[in-house]
# Entry
Amino acid sequence: MKHGVSMQMPPVRSTAVASASTVFFGSSDGKFYALDKSSGKTRWMFNSGSSIESSAALDKGKIFFSNNRQTLFALDALSGKEIWKYDFGESKNYDWAFDYYYSSPTIFNNPLVIGAKDGYVYKFNETNGQVVWKFQTQNIVRSTAVIDKSIVYFGNVDGILYAVDFTTGREKWKFLTVGNGLKNEDFGFDRRASFRFQQ
# Structure
């Protein structure tokens, strides 16, 4: 309490990730935090400029996350300094979005895979941020990809499950769920967007 005004912390909706000494997480105030595991003190803070609902991934001394402005960041895990960033394309509109689900990065060996609101799934070189390939769906990709035996699996808000070759980015198959045939207008809420994977 300060001067009779209640001070509230902004919501934290992303899942934290931890190294041996540090806990990392994003917040809806647009800031990404690194806290000392033992003391809880802030090691560093990075302002991304927009609310963060995407959970972070940690690999080889770098931390990766995207914000709601649809920018993917790679930061140095020790210092919090930006290594590279990538702005996704123009976000598609989805009138039935009622939650805070956003795709989170999945790392497999060196490459990083993440979906975006522009309807694409991207594979990046995590070292320099170069796009290796991008796969186009017809609508927003909010699910976090799962990678198994060189196949990337993810869904979009049309209720379609995709299987894409990890190396080439080419579609191997797709599966239309029951949700794909539903009309949200018949229910008054979102029954079509059926996928949010977590690895």
